[in-house]
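Researcher: I need the complex structure. Ligand is adenosine monophosphate. Inputs:
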Amino acid sequence: MTNWIIHLSLPINYKKISALLKQVQYKWQKINMTFQDLNLNTPLYNALDDLGLTTPTPIQEKSFNVIGSGKDVVGIAQTGTGKTFAYMLPILKNLHFSQQQNPRVLILVPTRELVVQVVDEIKKLTKYINVRVLGVYGGTNINTQKQAVVEGLDILVATTGRLYDLAVSHVLQLKSIQKLVIDEVDVMLDLGFRHQIINIFDILPQRRQNIMFSATMTYDVDAIINTFFVNPIRISVAASGTPLDNIAQQRYNVPNYHTKVNLTNHLLQDKETFNKVLIFVAFKRMADRLFEDLEIIFNDECCVIHSNKTQNYRLRSIEQFRGGENRILIATDVMARGLDIDNISHVINFDTPDFPENYMHRIGRSGRAEKEGNSLLFSTEKEQKGLQLIEDLMQMQIPLIDFPEDVEVSKELIEEEIPKIIEHHNPTKRKFNEDAPGPAFHEKKDKNKKENLGGSYKFKIAAKYKKPKTRGDKNYNRRNKRK
Ligand code: AMP
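Model: Output:
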């Protein structure tokens, strides 16, 4: 009884209890969630049955209600996570039969291979639904595609260039588009399709739902979202095949770039342990700089890839790394997506990504095929915010390792690290320099001194010439005739 009283007199932490309940509820859902819980319709259930699918993947589970609600959505998920069905299931559930000619759903993808793949997936899901799906892409006869458009369709899957050509030819009308899906948007932006995407936004109806899927989050993707999306809801899942338990994660606090280089050099000395190392950096410039710095010590063991390198250079670098000729590969986030290289001993996150999903994708390069992986994360003080976001997403803390004593801590800063001094208030700064020449250093001629006096000036001129300056000023004439 005393125990009871003690317990009850303690302050109740509602927040903690509710978080715990949510966790239990989530785990319960995870164990029990089936497609039946999504309240689909019979034709969709029959199609899923034919495909032998009973359980939604995490991205399908997370997207269904959000996409169904009609709000703008940004999903971070890789190919193979089931993302095509993640957006198609809620769209198809709400797409009613129609005989109208113009499409109501537009799906943009970066390549023609993806057009074919997405159309195939949709056809599998719509086996028992009367819905017209068409895929269009460049490099093939546009007239055949025009003919197909004229016959009428509900869902159009397209690459951006061909879509635009069809739209400007007026054969394809986009005025009925209610839902726009942009799939693999990071690839599109990396291929330089930014302007094409923006042009398409311009010719679409204002009132529409925007759904975007990307494997990684980049600043370019973020810029598109901020410009064209209305309060989007963000959903993300860990990269497929990223069994977190399989990857030993550790981190270092490192004060600056040069100290990060010293630490990397120190770690890479152990060639036996660090036998196949993928180093991630956020920017191309940083990738080149790090490559130059590591090359000094690891001359023949190091290669680099980013999107400014030629296709041949990239392929050669990947092959050399894959084959073991080079032990170290430096890569940017976008470039390394989809890289399927076995037996990577360590992923080094040379910087801490601002977008936590990128960290998940990075570490997923290690620990593939049930093998043990290792990930090291370097964070400066400025990067602690990014670290927090990563730990929040994973709902775990990454163990911190003490900085090795024999590694030199550099005081030297690179340009990007030098703090910029912004003077908000400087009382000693002279606001106006009397000695400095002003904007004009000679007296204006009288005729140039005229000011724009707006309406009143117009009336003065009218009075001077006693005639209307505009045809509409008839009252002026009448007034003056009566005088
Ligand atoms: P994605 O490229 O991400 O759309 O993934 C496509 C593959 O995942 C296809 O082979 C689908 O048949 C498969 N897939 C989609 N949803 C599920 C599911 N709920 N369970 C198992 N496999 C699925």
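Model: Summary of the prediction. The two ends are 107 Å apart (CA to CA).
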